[in-house]
Specification:
Layout lengths: L10 H28 L11 H15 L6 E2 L2 E2 L6 H13 L4 H26 L2 H13 L1 H6 L6 H20 L5 H17 L2 H16 L4 H5 L3 H32 L2 H5 L20 H9 L4 H7 L8 H19 L5 H4 L3 H18 L3 H29 L3 H23 L3 H27 L4 H15 L3 E5 L3 H11 L5 E2 L2 H8 L5 E5 L1 H6 L10 E3 L15 E4 L1 H5 L3
Parallel strand pairs: 3-4, 3-5
Antiparallel strand pairs: 1-2, 5-7, 6-7
Helix pairs in contact: 1-4, 1-5, 2-3, 2-22, 3-4, 4-5, 4-7, 4-17, 5-17, 7-8, 7-9, 7-15, 8-9, 8-11, 9-15, 14-17, 14-18, 15-17, 18-19, 18-20, 19-20, 21-22
């Protein structure tokens, strides 16, 4: 469907203009997104907490050739279905390495794909300008940009849910196209493979609210078709082999414990890999945390949600989805900002649609105030962020100045344009300023911030050196993040000891033995008494109060100590 022609142009010329505009818009949005999410993937190590254990799962899946049941430390890890891990296996296989950039590549590609989808949706629903604003605002807000650079599952869920809900909106906006409904149902399959039951549940919950507003579409959505069969087939393609391998225990973990167990936080339903009270937050958690994660666009994002002149699903559909999702997440016992992330790209599409309408008819008082506040906020953040890095990790001030000057120059140009009443041009300059700020942050600042995490790797690297000299390396009670680091360092799952007696027996072996021991057990004294005669190798992390509980204690028996000489 071609967007309606702009007033004042003859139809054939309008058709050609819009077509070229859509292609150029898609190319520009994808190019900017590729730069934003591919630059900086390889200039820092995996960062605690989630990246290492996701990498560890990918390593075990690739090494063992087990594509159905994700494992960590040799045990089933069914918090998430295998879709993202399989993407990681493919990425690392093609790259021939488990380096951080290869593990992060699927997330970067999912982020780029999400930006492309949001841009295309905007072009389809309203105009090329609306699509470009929606796509680039979604790409550059703080939370999405951060998660698109991490080897985590959440961005794959975001891409899948954005696709499903976008298809639902198209089905409502274009009722004559029955294809959208069938694609909506089919898309529930990949959504399930990205997040399990929670993914389709979030989508169906939001669509139920949309259909409550537009009741005339209920029959079209519920009419049987090939889409339901395709979605169900994709789900069963994983669930049936899972049931054959793990039976009731695996199915309970996927369909009960990782859904109701997390939602209600009942002690008898907590997942095997979960912990009670792990993410319990107050009711108003999202109200307090959301604004900071939407920087620097929070002003225009909020303004776009103020009702006014909403006509049709193109205007009210996305706010309904956002409100329904917020209500569902607020009711859950577990609350994290990444749980809201999957609907944020669509919410920025709404901002793009709003901007397009506002700029066409002339912004009112609210819109002008929101846009001007956004210009100032982006300038302050862009110029101030480098000095935060200086204060935190001691980045040299000339580098900070080199980061701040482009923000100051582009920001000043933006404010000057706004002073002349050219708000759209000013907002474009501010968007360019923020893109430059993010790219400079990844290239210049992130390697300095990486120094904060480097000490965490030291025990694993020291143990690897000892193994190369003939020592046997084992692990004791490592947590999931530490297991991930160990898997990626050694290329396999290390043998493990489960209790104090096993620790003592392992260290008493006649050959050289190095033990990577979960630190909190050691410091509490549970195992320290049993490790008498062993030597703890001090590391920078073990001497740091901030990092001490995050990295293993490295213990050596006497024969292993001799290897250090």
């Amino acid at each position: 469907m071609t967007p309606p022609p702009r007033p004042g142009l003859r139809y054939p010329l309008a058709f050609l203009s819009e077509k070229i505009g859509v292609y150029n818009t898609m190319a520009l949005a994808c190019g900017v997104a590729a730069a934003l999410f591919l630059v900086g993937l390889d200039n820092h190590a995996l960062w605690d907490y989630h990246e290492p254990y996701v990498g560890g799962i990918i390593q075990e899946m690739a090494a063992g050739g087990r594509w159905i049941v994700p494992t960590l430390n040799g045990q089933p890890y069914l918090e998430k279905p295998p879709l993202h891990y399989l993407l990681g296996v493919a990425s690392t296989a093609l790259a021939g390495t488990y380096d951080p950039w290869a593990l992060r590549l699927p997330s970067a590609l999912m982020a780029i794909g999400t930006v492309a989808w949001i841009t295309w949706l905007g072009c389809r629903l309203q105009s090329a300008r609306a699509g470009l604003w929606g796509g680039l605002l979604a790409a550059t807000h703080v939370l999405f940009f951060r998660m698109g650079h991490q080897a985590v599952v959440d961005i794959t869920l975001t891409a899948a849910l954005s696709g499903t809900l976008g298809l639902a909106l198209l089905a409502l906006a274009e009722p004559e196209r029955g294809l959208w409904v069938q694609l909506f149902w089919a898309s529930l399959g990949p959504l399930f493979l990205a997040k399990g039951v929670i993914g389709p549940a979030m989508a169906l919950w939001a669509v139920a609210f949309l259909l409550a507003v537009d009741r005339g579409a209920i029959r079209r959505f519920l009419r049987p078709g090939w889409g339901q069969g395709a979605g169900l087939a994709l789900i069963l393609a994983w669930v049936l082999p899972l049931a054959l391998q793990g039976g009731r225990a695996h199915l309970s973990e996927v369909f009960l414990r990782n859904t109701l167990g997390r939602f209600l936080e009942r002690a008898d339903l907590v997942p095997r890999t979960g912990r009670l009270d792990e993410h319990r937050e107050p009711v108003l958690f999202y109200l307090g945390r959301t604004p900071g994660n939407l920087l620097p666009w929070v002003g225009i994002w909020c303004a776009s949600l103020v009702p006014g002149g909403w006509r049709g699903v193109r205007s009210w559909g996305i706010p309904v989805v956002l409100a329904a999702t917020l209500a569902l997440l607020t009711a859950s016992s577990e609350k994290r900002m990444v749980y809201l992330l999957p609907v944020l790209p669509l919410s920025f599409l709404h901002t793009g649609l709003w901007l397009d309408r506002v700029l066409d008819r002339g912004p009112g008082v609210l819109a002008r105030g929101a846009i001007r506040a956004t210009l100032v906020l982006a300038l302050v953040l862009g110029a101030g962020m480098p000095w935060f890095v200086v204060a935190r990790v001691g980045m040299p001030w000339p580098e900070a100045l080199a980061m701040a000057l482009p923000a100051l120059g582009l920001g000043a140009a933006s404010l000057a344009m706004a002073a002349r009443g050219r708000l759209e041009g000013a907002l474009r300059w501010t968007l360019a300023q923020w893109v430059v700020t993010l790219l400079l942050f990844m290239v210049v600042a992130v390697p300095h911030l990486d120094r904060e995490w480097n000490p965490i790797l030291e025990p694993y690297l020291e143990a690897k050196k000892l193994e190369e000299q003939g020592a046997m390396v084992i692990q004791g009670r490592l947590e999931e993040t530490q297991v991930g680091f160990a898997n990626l360092t050694f290329g396999r799952t290390l043998p493990r000891v489960e209790d104090a007696q096993a620790v003592r027996e392992a260290l008493a072996q006649p050959g050289p033995v190095a033990l990577l021991l979960e630190p909190r057990h050691f410091w509490r004294g549970e195992l320290r008494a049993q490790a008498e005669g062993a030597v703890e190798i001090p590391t920078e992390a073990s001497r740091s109060k901030r990092l001490r509980d995050r990295t293993p204690v490295l213990l050596l028996n006497r024969r292993a100590v001799d290897l250090l000489d």
